[in-house]
Amino acid sequence: MEEFVTAAEGAEGAAVQPSGMDRRDALRVMAVAAVVPMLPTSASAAPAPVSRAPLPLLDEAQQPVRKKGPRGTPSDPVLQVAKADWPMLLSLRELTTLKALCDMIIPADDKSPSASAVGAPGYINEWASRPGGEASLVRVRGGLAWLDRESTARFGKRFHLCTDAQKTAICDDICYLPKAKPEHRFAAQFFDTIRDQTATAFYTTPQGWKDLGYIGNVALPKFEGPNAAIRKQLGLE
After folding, report:
1. 23-27, 71-75, 147-151: least confidently modelled range
2. How large is the angle between the packed helices 185-202 and 164-174, nearest 10 degrees?
3. Could you write out the three-class secondary structure of the chain?
4. Is it the case that residue 160 has pLDDT exceeding 50?
């Protein structure tokens, strides 16, 4: 204790009575002695003024455009907002013809509803009307106009008013592009597009899954592989 007080005296350079300070007071004095030289004087305490240039203001034309929530595109959809926010462009007349063609491609049977019953025409309308889908829209509209013109020329009425036999006669001429006559090649390309889109629309619905026999997302206690009929078709038996 006596040696410690002596060291404190040397640091302070002041008279400190060894008998008047205990260890805690000595530590406090040493700490103050170490800090005091670091404190600024009253003259140097005020910070030097710093000149600040004003921040530039953005012109209104430079302001970022705020969108009202996510929009998405067909290639980058916003899955949380599944509803398309672009206008549907096919007219009621065009949708009537399209409905008749979709139901020729996938008609109702004892097992499943028709393509139009599960919304295929609406799906195709949304697809053809999408932003950036101008070429698709031209093909769909041109093909629908061709169907009505062709059926009127052959049977004197629009396509949706024809009998199934009359519709089949027209579809047979355009249902296979490699064998389509030169004068039917555009219509065959149109039919090829509508067939693909109708199948996509139909087989991505619960009714389409059921038609395929797809059960999906159901846990199986045991998987024994494809059945005998499929293995035979694949040449595995």
Report:
1. 23-27
2. 110
3. CHHHHHHHHHHHCCCCCHHHCCHHHHHHHHHHHHHHHHCCCCCCCCCCCCCCCCCCCCCHHHCCCCCCCCCCECCECCCCCCCCCCCCCCCHHHHHHHHHHHHHHCCCCCCCCCCHHHCHHHHHHHHHHCCCCHHHHHHHHHHHHHHHHHHHHHHCCCHHHCCHHHHHHHHHHHCCHHHCCHHHHHHHHHHHHHHHHHHHHHCCCHHHHHHHCCCCCCCCCCCCCCCHHHHHHCCCC
4. yes
> Of the candidates 120, 122, 130, 167, which has an alpha carbon nearest to the alpha carbon of residue 147?
167
Q: Which two tokens stand for residue 149?
A: 């013109």
- Asked if 124 contacts 98 with a C-beta cutoff of 8 angstroms, the reply is yes
d(CA 17, CA 166): 123
pTM of the model: 0.62
Residues 6 or more apart whose Cβ sits within 8 Å of residue 139: 189, 190, 193
Distance CA 112, CA 1 (A): 101
Give the total residue count for the chain.
237
User: Tokens 């004095």 identify what position?
Assistant: 29
d(CA 137, CA 160): 20
Residue 231 Cα distances to 209, 211, 226, 234, angstroms: 21, 21, 6, 5
